[in-house]
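Box 3.1 A note on notation
Throughout this textbook, protein chains are presented in two layers. The first layer is the amino acid sequence; the second is a token string describing backbone geometry. Keep the layers aligned when reading.
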Amino acid sequence: MRSIWNGAISFGLVSIPIKLVNATENHSIHFRQIHLADGGRIRYRKVCELDEEEVQGGEIGKAYEDADGTMIPITDEDLAQLPLPTAKTIEIVAFVPADQIDPLQMDAAYYLSANGVPAAKPYTLLREALKRSNKVAVAKYALRGRERLGMLRVVDDVIAMHGLLWPDEIRAPEGVAPDGDVTVRDAELDLADALMDTLGEVDMDSLHDDYREAVEELIAAKASGETVRPAESGDAGGGKVIDLIAALENSVQAAKKSRGEEGAGAEGEGDGEMADVHPIKKTSGKSSPQPTKKSTAAAKKSTAAAKKSTAAARKSTPKSTGAKKSTSTTKKSTAKKTATKKQTSSSSGSGSGTKKTASSRRRTSA
């Protein structure tokens, strides 16, 4: 790696020659500005506002603009004469616990490399001292024309330095916190703790920039002349008023499912957590599945059989009515015969009685 600064670490009376190397790199995709009409690149030129002529780099100096707009020229010679003891030195001023450094102060990160064989011994000494003390070193150094604050710590077998902002460069968070008194219930805190436990830890090396990958795929597709399909945008739910308890419970269930934990769907059965609820989809009246050919044929056959049985029943109905009529006729004829026999017997009885009366009359007259 290419060094960007050469100097020494001042550790009391010990001086350690080092080289400063960038510890980070920017992977952001940079775009150029173009003229939409013809695709020509747009460039910026440095022009003097007095004579409106383009100025080359060797003709450009520094100046401080006063409150009234007056320009006060400052040369490199002026800056070189300033008493700056950290011009080429990283001066360690204290050793403190790491938790005393506010992460808001952290800026750029660098690796410190031992510059030459003689620097190996004192470099290793400082590294091991930092390891054993579990502390970090606070130092001052000068870079790019200004004095800065830094923090030295050990990363693997290398001393790393984080540039720090000066304490007066950290703004106070005034007016940032929510207005008014907000009360958080214990149940909400318990669910928040459960969600934190479910999410657990993550391997930082597994995290990557999804947006940058999408931009790279877009550029590759356009370069090869392929049609770019718009990505589906998911509803992030921004600006919606939600039930905090329900949102936390659903978040816990979603986190468990994403991690493939068994029994995640039934988690709310015994411990008071909410199970997933899926709304019933409305149908347009055709809720039954489409019938198959076999089931349709069977339905047609059963319908035809039902029609035949209905027709047979209708035919048998008049016959049974006729039977009823013949039965009633038989009953009537039987009744008539019975009446005729009664009349005959009665008539015969009356005749014999007449004969008996006549004979008795004859006997009386004699």
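The beta strands are 3-11, 14-22, 62-65, 71-74, 89-97, 106-114, 135-143, 146-155, 158-164. Residues 262-295, 315-331, 339-366 have pLDDT under 50 and may be disordered.
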